[in-house]
């Protein structure tokens, strides 16, 4: 998601190499990869598609998503990337000021247009096991279930929401992170 005034971008393409996973000095994971976007246009003269000039989009993704990307994606995989353009500035070894554009991804996923994928959901370790909201199944009440047909209003059945607890809510336990070193 982008904020007002930011240059948001969604693109599709193929990874030019395996994602590179690194860690900042404070341990935050960041994965970098490049997406090759090859436009194809219908050519009436040849009665077929013609490849356009490819564009290469450098991408960075941070935190848990970075680890998921590095673990899941490989060179040649078709992906959809959504994020915002960010211009990086630095001074090179010769003292020259440099800049480059990079897509900072807020979401990366498989492009299912031509391929099928199996998704493996990560276990949520940030929700206490006794959190009824995390495990409750959504229930859509019907007027017959709640007796609302007589009163003209709908009320949820008693078992559709977790019971209120008299104990104070505790903070979620800290997240654990798998790293390349511990895996």
From TrEMBL:
InterPro entries assigned to the protein according to its UniProt record, in alphabetical order: NA-bd_OB-fold, Primosome_PriB/ssb, ssDNA-bd
TM region(s), chain numbering: none
Region (Disordered): 122-183
MF terms (GO), sorted A to Z: single-stranded DNA binding
CDD domains: SSB_OBF
One annotated Gene Ontology cellular component of this protein: nucleoid
Keyword field: DNA-binding
Keyword match DNA-binding: yes
Family matches, as Gene3D superfamilies: Nucleic acid-binding proteins
Compositionally skewed regions (Low complexity) per UniProt: 153-169
GO biological process: DNA replication
Biased composition regions of type Basic residues, renumbered to the chain: 170-183
Superkingdom, taxonomy of origin: Bacteria
Subunit structure: Homotetramer.
HAMAP family associated with the record: SSB
Protein name, as recorded: Single-stranded DNA-binding protein
